[in-house]
From TrEMBL, chain A:
Protein name listed in UniProt: Carbohydrate ABC transporter membrane protein 2, CUT1 family
GO biological process: transmembrane transport
The entry's keywords: Cell membrane, Membrane, Transmembrane, Transmembrane helix, Transport
Domain of life: Bacteria
Pfam family, one: BPD_transp_1
Family classification: Belongs to the binding-protein-dependent transport system permease family.
Gene3D superfamilies linked to this entry: MetI-like
Lineage of source species: Bacteria, Bacillati, Bacillota, Bacilli, Bacillales
From TrEMBL, chain B:
Organism: Paenibacillus aquistagni
Region (Disordered): 28-48
Tagged with keyword Transport: yes
Name of this chain's protein: Multiple sugar transport system substrate-binding protein
Keywords: Signal, Sugar transport, Transport
Pfam families: SBP_bac_8 (PF13416)
Low complexity: compositionally biased ranges: 29-40
Domain of life: Bacteria
UniProt entry tagged with the keyword Cell wall biogenesis/degradation: no
Signal peptide: 1-22
TrEMBL record, chain C:
Naturally occurring in which organism (per UniProt): Paenibacillus aquistagni
InterPro entries the record matches: ABC_transporter_permease, MetI-like, MetI-like_sf
ABC transmembrane type-1 domain segment(s): 66-278
The UniProt record lists the keyword Phosphoprotein: no
Similarity comment: family membership: Belongs to the binding-protein-dependent transport system permease family.
Keywords, alphabetical: Cell membrane, Membrane, Transmembrane, Transmembrane helix, Transport
Protein name: Carbohydrate ABC transporter membrane protein 1, CUT1 family
Length: 271, 450, 289
C-alpha cells in the first residue's frame, strides 16, 4: 500500500480510537474536577482545575473498599466454579461417546441463547425458596454452570490429538488423571483466557446481583456505584470517581492479558 | 514449559479462590458487626464494641445518599451511642421511593424485611394495606405515648380513615420555588416572598429565559411522581379522583388547564427547558436556570453547591384567587414491620428517637426537610430558623399541607406511572395535553376496574 | 461389544443438576405462573387460565415495547456489524500499529455496563453533556437526548453500538486472517481491483463470520436491560421501554407475577424458535459445533 494512504488510514484509525475512548477520558476528566464546578473545561476535555475531592469523597462516604472486596470474592468464586464445572463437562463432551451427547450439547447451547430476563422471575423465586436472597450463594450458584466455558473448553479439548490420550491410557492413567495430565496441561492458555473473560464478565455483571443483593454492605462494585444517586441530584464528581475506581481492576487485567481476551473471544460469541 | 507454569499458577489460583473464597464468604454473610459507611460511622462501630452482647440489631432502610444520607447516618449514630440495648444499621435503597418500594416488596417475599423503613406519603395506602407492617398505634396505645407534640397536619399523613396511626411522620416537605436572585436583579424583577399567581410566575419565566440565550426560565421537578401536578391541580380546585364515586377526575377542566399551562411554557414561551430533574438541579446550580420548583428537601444540596445568591419563594395560587393553595405533603413516614416482640420493641424505640424533637431538628437542619415536632420548630430550631430565613420559608406555607393522593388497592404504582408517562408524552410532543390526560384516565380506570 | 461409559455422566452431572434447577425448572415454573393470579405479598394463588395472556396482549404498552425492542435491534445490529467489518479491514491494513488498535477498540467490551450507563447519561446531559457540545460546534442546538421520546432510543443505541462493535472487530479480523492468503492469490490470478476482490471474494467468503456476528449481536441487543435500567428507566413515556425491562417492571415494580410470566413466556417461545433455527444452521455450516 502507498505510504500516503497508509498514513491517512492511520490518522483515521487514531481519531476513531480517540472517539471510542472518549467516554473514559470524559469520566477521568469529571472525576478529577472540583465538586463545585465539574464542568468547566478547556478545549472540551481538560479541567480548568485539578482536584482529588471526588476520590476523597468516595473513599470517605462509601464503603468502596468493602464493595471492592465483595466483587473480588464473588467474582473469584464464581469464575473458579465455572472453570471447574466447565472443564469436567467439556471433557465429557469432547472425549466420550455416550447416549444423548448431541442432545445434551444442544441443550447447553440453548441455555446461552435464552434471554436471562425470560426466566428471571422464576429463578428469583427458586433462589428465594432456598433462602438465598441477599446472599452470595444466590448470586453465584445459579450462574456457576456456564455454557460459554463449556463451549470454549470443548473446542480446545477437541483440538488435542487423540493419540496423546491413548498414550496416557496405556500408561495406566485413569480418566481423571488423563484429564489433568493431557487436557489441562495442553490447554493452559485456553483455560487462562476463558477464566479471564469470565472474570471480567462476572465482575461487570449488573442485573442479577442487583436483583439478589439488597444489603448495601454486600453489594458488588457495579451495582454500588449507583450509590451516589439520590433524589433528583446526582453528585457527578464522586460518581465518576467511583466509576473510575471500579473500572481500574478490569483495565489492569485487560492490559496485562489483552492477548487472551481477543484470542479467546474468537472461540465463541458470548461476551 | 511456559504453558505448564501458567497452568499451574491457574490451578493453584483456582483452588485458592475456592478455599479462601468460601471462608471469606462465611464471614461476610454472617458478619453482624455494623460496617462503617462514614467517618462518623467508624465511631459508632467502636461504640458498639462496648455494648453488651445481647444488644438487638435492627435494620433501618431509607433512600438518601450524599449529604442527606450523612445526616441520616448521624442521627442513627447518635441513637446507637445514646443507649446500649439496640443497634441500628441504616441502609440506603437505591432508586428513591420507587426503588425502595420495589425493594421492600421483594424483601417481603423473601421474608427479609428490615425492622424499620421509611415510606413515601405517596405509598401510604400500599404500605398500610399490603405490607406486613405493625401499625404504630399498637405501641402508642400500649405505652400511652403522647403524640401531642407532633404537628397536627403531619400526624394525619400517617393515619388511616379511622384516625389510627399506621406510621409516624418522619420527613415532611412542601414544594418551594428556588430562585437565582442574581438573575432576578439583572432582569429587574422584584423579589417577593410569594408571587401573586402562577400566571405571574409564567411571565417571569419567559422574561428570564429570554434575557440570555441558553438559559431556562423555570423547571418543575417531577421525575418520579406526579407531586407537582397534584399541587397545581388541587390549588386550582381540581382533584385526582373521587375514590368514593370511582371516578377519575384529573382530566377535567382544571387538570387540562394545568397541563396546558406547562405545555404553553414549554412550547410557546420556551421557558421550561427539556431536561430531567437531575439535570435541572445541575443547570440551576450552574446558573443556567432561573427558577426551580422542587422539594424543601433539596435545600441543603442546592444551597451548598450554588455559586450565586439563592432565594426562595412560596408557592402562589392561580389568578382570580377563588381557590386556596393546597400543598400535598412530600417526604416519608416511618413504618415498623412485623417481627418478634423484641425486635418490634427495639424498632419502636428507634422510631420514637428518630421522630424526637432533637432528631427531627437535626434532620431538618441538615437535610432541609421540615421538622415534624412543634417544640422543635418553636424552641430547638428557633435560633436556626431566625438565622436561616430560607429554611424557615417552608413553614410559612405549612398550614396548607394536604395529604398526598393515594390510588386505592394494589395498582397505585402502576396508576402513578401511567399518569406520569402520559404527562411526559405530552411534554415530548407525542400527544396533546388533553389527549394525554384523557388517555391516562381511561387506562387508569381500566386497571382499577372503575 | 462396547461398554457404556459412566464417566461422562459423572462429569456432566454437576452442570446438569444446576441447569435442571436454575434453567429447566424455572422455564416450566414460569409457564405455570403465567396461568395463575399469584399475589406474592399475601401468598394467595388462583388459577386464571389465559387471562394473563389476554391482559398482556391487550395492553397497548406491550405492543409498544415490542416495537421499541425491534427498533433498538434495527438501530444497533447493522451499525455494530458494519463498523466491525470496516474497522477490521482498516486495522488489517494499518501496518505497525495494528495490534494497538485491536486492543484499544476492544476496551469498551470489557467495561461494565453500569459504568458505561453512568458515563453516557452524563455525556447525554442537555447542558453539560459532551454530545451537545460537539453538536454545538456544528451549530446544532441543544438536544435533550434522554428526555426526548424521539431521541432517547437513539441515544441508547449509541451506547449499545459503542459497547458491542469492538467485539465484532475482533471477530472479523480473525475471519480476514484466515482468508487473506486465499483471496490474495485468487485476486492476483484474476487481476481484480481491491474493491472487486472485496465484493466478490472477501465479503462472500466471510459468510460464516457474518452469520456469527449478526446472531450474537442480535441476541445481545434483544436482551438489552441494564442500560435502560440505569439511563432511562424505560422513559420518557415508555419510548425506551423494551422487552426485558417490561418483564422486569411487571415482575418487580408492579409485582404482577402472572402478567410478567406471560410476557416472558411469549418472549421465550419466539427466541426459542429463532435459536433452534440458528443452532441448526451453525451445526451445518461451521466446524464449531
Amino acid at each position: 500500500m502507498k505510504l500516503r494512504s497508509r498514513l491517512l488510514l492511520n490518522v483515521f484509525l487514531l481519531l476513531s480510537v480517540l472517539a471510542v475512548l472518549m467516554p473514559f477520558i470524559w469520566m477521568l476528566t469529571v472525576s478529577f474536577s472540583p465538586s463545585a464546578d465539574p464542568f468547566k473545561r478547556v478545549a472540551l476535555l481538560i479541567p480548568t482545575s485539578f482536584s482529588l475531592e471526588g476520590y476523597k469523597q468516595v473513599l470517605e462516604q462509601a464503603p468502596i473498599a468493602r464493595w471492592f472486596m465483595n466483587s473480588v470474592l464473588l467474582t473469584s468464586v464464581l469464575t473458579g466454579g465455572q472453570l471447574i464445572l466447565g472443564v469436567l463437562a467439556a471433557y465429557a463432551f469432547a472425549r466420550y461417546q455416550f447416549r444423548g451427547r448431541e442432545a445434551l450439547f444442544f441443550f447447553v447451547l440453548c441455555t446461552m441463547m435464552v434471554p436471562p430476563q425470560a426466566i428471571m422471575l422464576p429463578v428469583y423465586l427458586v433462589v428465594n425458596s432456598f433462602d438465598w436472597v441477599n446472599s452470595y450463594k444466590g448470586v453465584i450458584i445459579p450462574h456457576i454452570a456456564s455454557a460459554y466455558a463449556i463451549f470454549v473448553l470443548r473446542q480446545f479439548f477437541m483440538a488435542i490429538p487423540r493419540e496423546l490420550e491413548e498414550a496416557s491410557r496405556v500408561d495406566g492413567c485413569h480418566s481423571v488423571q488423563t484429564l489433568y495430565h493431557i487436557y489441562l496441561r495442553a490447554s493452559g492458555p485456553a483455560l487462562f483466557g476463558v477464566g479471564l473473560i469470565q472474570f471480567v464478565n462476572n465482575w461487570n455483571d449488573y442485573y442479577w446481583p442487583f436483583l439478589i443483593l439488597s444489603d448495601e454492605m454486600k453489594m458488588t462494585l457495579p451495582v454500588a456505584i449507583v450509590h451516589f444517586r439520590n433524589d433528583s441530584y446526582i453528585e457527578w464528581v464522586p460518581t465518576m470517581a467511583a466509576a473510575t475506581l471500579s473500572v481500574l481492576p478490569v483495565i489492569g487485567i485487560y492490559t496485562l492479558a489483552q492477548r487472551y481476551f481477543t484470542e479467546s473471544s474468537l472461540q465463541s460469541g458470548i461476551k | 514449559m511456559k504453558k505448564r507454569i501458567s497452568l499451574n499458577i491457574m490451578l493453584i489460583a483456582a483452588l485458592m479462590w475456592l478455599l479462601v473464597g468460601c471462608g471469606q464468604g462465611n464471614t461476610h454473610s454472617s458478619n453482624s458487626e455494623p460496617a462503617s459507611a462514614s467517618p462518623a460511622g467508624t465511631e459508632a462501630a467502636s461504640d458498639t464494641g462496648d455494648k453488651t452482647a445481647d444488644a438487638i440489631e435492627i435494620k433501618f432502610m431509607h433512600v438518601f445518599g450524599g449529604s442527606q444520607g450523612e445526616a441520616i447516618q448521624e442521627m442513627v449514630d447518635r441513637y446507637n451511642a445514646s443507649q446500649d440495648k439496640v443497634i441500628v444499621k441504616a441502609e440506603q435503597a437505591q432508586g428513591f421511593y420507587d426503588g425502595l418500594l420495589e425493594k421492600l416488596q421483594t424483601l417481603a417475599v423473601s421474608k427479609q424485611l428490615p425492622e424499620v423503613a421509611i415510606g413515601s406519603y405517596a405509598n401510604g395506602e400500599f404500605m398500610s394495606t399490603r405490607m406486613p407492617i405493625r401499625p404504630l398505634q399498637t405501641f402508642i396505645d400500649k405505652e400511652g405515648y403522647s403524640t401531642a407534640d407532633y404537628t397536627a397536619e403531619m400526624l394525619k399523613l400517617g393515619q388511616d380513615a379511622e384516625g389510627h396511626q399506621y406510621a409516624l411522620p418522619f420527613l415532611v416537605s412542601t414544594p418551594l420555588i428556588y430562585v437565582n436572585l442574581d438573575h432576578f436583579e439583572k432582569a429587574g424583577i422584584p423579589v417577593v416572598e410569594q408571587p401573586k399567581s402562577w400566571e405571574q410566575v409564567r411571565d417571569w419565566a419567559q422574561q428570564l429565559a429570554a434575557s440570555e440565550s441558553g438559559r431556562g426560565g423555570i423547571y418543575f421537578q417531577m421525575d418520579f411522581d406526579t407531586w407537582m401536578f397534584q399541587t397545581l391541580l388541587e390549588t386550582k380546585g381540581g382533584s385526582y379522583a373521587s375514590i368514593k364515586d370511582q371516578d377519575v377526575q384529573f382530566n377535567d377542566a382544571a387538570g387540562k388547564e394545568v397541563l396546558r399551562y406547562w405545555l404553553d411554557m414549554m412550547q410557546k414561551d420556551k421557558s421550561i427547558p427539556k431536561m430531567n430533574g437531575t439535570q435541572a438541579a445541575e443547570a440551576f446550580q450552574s446558573g443556567n436556570l432561573s427558577m426551580l420548583v422542587a422539594t424543601t428537601g433539596n435545600l441543603a444540596n442546592l444551597s451548598k453547591n450554588s455559586s450565586f445568591n439563592l432565594g426562595i419563594m412560596l408557592l402562589p395560587t392561580w389568578e382570580g384567587g377563588q381557590t386556596t393553595r393546597r400543598l400535598p405533603a412530600g417526604g416519608a413516614g416511618l413504618y415498623v414491620f412485623q417481627g418478634n416482640d423484641e425486635k418490634e420493641a427495639a424498632a419502636w424505640d428507634f422510631v420514637k428517637y428518630a421522630t424526637s424533637p432533637e432528631s427531627s431538628a437535626l434532620l431538618a437542619e441538615k437535610m432541609g426537610y421540615m421538622t415534624v415536632r412543634d417544640s422543635a420548630r418553636e424552641e430547638l430550631m428557633a435560633d436556626y430558623l431566625k438565622a436561616n430565613p430560607m429554611a424557615a420559608a417552608t413553614y410559612k406555607q405549612a398550614q396548607d399541607i394536604v395529604p398526598w393522593f393515594n390510588w386505592p388497592g394494589e395498582a397505585g404504582t402502576r396508576a402513578t406511572r401511567i399518569l406520569l408517562d402520559h404527562i411526559q408524552g405530552s411534554f415530548a410532543g407525542d400527544m396533546s395535553g388533553d389527549e394525554a390526560l384523557d388517555k391516562a384516565a381511561a387506562e387508569i380506570e381500566k386497571i382499577l376496574g372503575w | 461389544m462396547r461398554r457404556i461409559p459412566w464417566q461422562p455422566y459423572l462429569y456432566l452431572s454437576p452442570v446438569l443438576v444446576l441447569y435442571a434447577i436454575f434453567f429447566v425448572f424455572p422455564l416450566f415454573f414460569s409457564l405455570y405462573i403465567s396461568f395463575m393470579e399469584w399475589d406474592l405479598l399475601l401468598d394467595k394463588k388462583q388459577f386464571v387460565g389465559l387471562s394473563n395472556y389476554q391482559e398482556v396482549l391487550s395492553n397497548p404498552l406491550f405492543w409498544k415495547v415490542i416495537r421499541n425492542t425491534l427498533l433498538y435491534m434495527a438501530l444497533t445490529v447493522p451499525p455494530s456489524a458494519a463498523l466491525g467489518l470496516v474497522y477490521a479491514l482498516a486495522i488489517e491494513r494499518a501496518g505497525k500499529l495494528r495490534s494497538m488498535y485491536r486492543v484499544l477498540f476492544f476496551v469498551p467490551v470489557v467495561i461494565s455496563v453500569s459504568v458505561a450507563g453512568l458515563v453516557f447519561s452524563l455525556m447525554f446531559s442537555p447542558q453539560k453533556g459532551l454530545f451537545n457540545e460537539w453538536l454545538g460546534l456544528f451549530g446544532i442546538g441543544e438536544q435533550a437526548w434522554l428526555q426526548d421520546t424521539k431521541l432517547a432510543m437513539f441515544a441508547l443505541a449509541i451506547v449499545g453500538v459503542w459497547m458491542s462493535f469492538g467485539y465484532n472487530v475482533v471477530l472479523y479480523i480473525s475471519g480476514l486472517k484466515q482468508l487473506n492468503n486465499e483471496v490474495k492469490e485468487a485476486a492476483a490470478i484474476d487481476g481484480a481491483s481491491g474493491w472487486q476482490s472485496f465484493r466478490h471474494m472477501t465479503f462472500p467468503l466471510l459468510m460464516p463470520v457474518h452469520m456469527f456476528v449478526w446472531t450474537i449481536t442480535l441476541l445481545h441487543s434483544l436482551q438489552i436491560f441494564a442500560t435502560v435500567h440505569i439511563m432511562t428507566l424505560g422513559g420518557p413515556n415508555n419510548s425506551t421501554n423494551v422487552w426485558a425491562f417490561f418483564i422486569w417492571q411487571e415482575a418487580f415494580q408492579f409485582f404482577n407475577t402472572g402478567t410478567a410470566s406471560a410476557a416472558a413466556t411469549i418472549l421465550f417461545v419466539i427466541v426459542l424458535g429463532l435459536t433452534v433455527i440458528q443452532v441448526r444452521w451453525m451445526q451445518k455450516r461451521t466446524q464449531w459445533v
